Amino acid sequence: MPTRFTRGAVATAAALAMTFAAACAPGSSNDKPASKAPNAVSTDVAKAGNVTLTVWDQEVQGGLKQQVDTLNKQFMAKYPNVKINRVSRSFSDLQKTLRLALSGSNPPDVVEANQGYANMAQYVKAGMLLPLDSYDQVYGWKKRYPKGLMDLNSVTQDGKLIGSGNLYGVSLNGEIVGLYYNKEKLAKLGIQPPKTWAEFDQALATAKGKGELPIAFNNLEKLPAMQLYGILQDGLTDKESVRKLVFGSGGSWSDGPNVQAAQKLADWTKAGYLTKDPNSRKWDDTPVDFAKGQGVFMFGGTWWAPDLADRMKDKVGFVLPPAAQAGQPVSTMGGESLPWSITSKSKHADVAAAYINFITSPEAMDVSVETGNLPVLAAPTKQPSLPLMKEVSTAWTELSKNDGTTPYIDYTSPTFTDGFGGALQELVAGKKSAQDAMKAAQDDAAAFQKKK
């Protein structure tokens, strides 16, 4: 996930990183084995007595916020003895504060902990999250979810390997990084939604030639360029190669197709296809700018769809990224939203597990659809009504059918957002070549693999 990230002040982020690193360093007071799953669990929430369950999430936009609000009210109505203390923060704020909160003496009970080596794996290694395997035995999450989705939320107890090991979270929504387009602008330009990269390149040239900004793109936080790069990478190489790179099981970031993807991003910048000075503009402002008419196209995740549907109504469309050739299956980044996890110090782990089960139940998938979101599993009774969400649902179905999901590339290492994202910032600023940017990616990935 989401990998939705906004960089705060450099000094603040550095201080947080140093504090967490010290807390997790060998020989520190927090250097301890991963937490163990409880031997006995209870599903009887009513017998837990009066409980205040503190939940930290990052669902602050439009339908995402409404979805969690609705599910929280339903849970408290079912269990009047439980009060949910919801702390809702933007993705960036959650990332900046969650690590310190988890290392404190009174952390929240339930948190959305981002997948990957930089977050979930580090929390697991430090013993900050509770394994959910015992709860899975009674709630049956692995029976409801495809193995690939469960693997995304799994980590070995030493934090060295993601994609296997114990289960540490359950997700509610599905995610795709795809292509949004302004229907009115395409109509005026005489352009159809592009099906191939060749058609897309022609559309960009046409838009630029007629005075339009081809692609809305803000990159202050580095991750936007990583996602845009990842989309180009998926179009130039095969999905298994991307998966091996991210999970550290083979390949090199400096191989030919990966360099070609970086070169494509550089070429778009030089051609004036991207927002001017993107490295100075916030990622969260991208959909706001796009809704105001700045940009014919916008690459972005489906987490932005509910808000865009509200702002633009039927003027916005969504498709998967273009294919190399017409009719070929497409791969793109995606999978599932940030998982809901239980902190190891929670005094109400059984209630927290019941809460997670409730907000990821089949009935919750219906709520996801009703609030304009994309449920990770098929909703049993509801279908999307908004045109944009119908397009998102169609894209999700197509991607799932072709097993076309590739992992977010920032999962590659705890430092990849800086190590590679920083290089991509220099690339779009015209200060670094494609070859040098990919060398930075390979160096960062290799250094992490060596330490594991």
From TrEMBL:
Signal peptide start-end: 1-23
SUPFAM superfamilies xref list: Periplasmic binding protein-like II
Coiled-coil ranges per UniProt: 424-451
PROSITE patterns associated with the record: PROKAR_LIPOPROTEIN
Entry superkingdom: Bacteria
Keyword Cell inner membrane part of the UniProt annotation: no
Gene3D superfamilies recorded: Periplasmic binding protein-like II
Keywords tagged on the record: Coiled coil, Signal
Lyase in keyword set: no
InterPro entries tied to this protein: Bact_solute-bd_prot1, SBP
PANTHER family from the UniProt entry: ARABINOSE-BINDING PROTEIN-RELATED, DIACETYLCHITOBIOSE BINDING PROTEIN DASA
Protein name: Extracellular solute-binding protein
Gene source species: Actinomadura barringtoniae
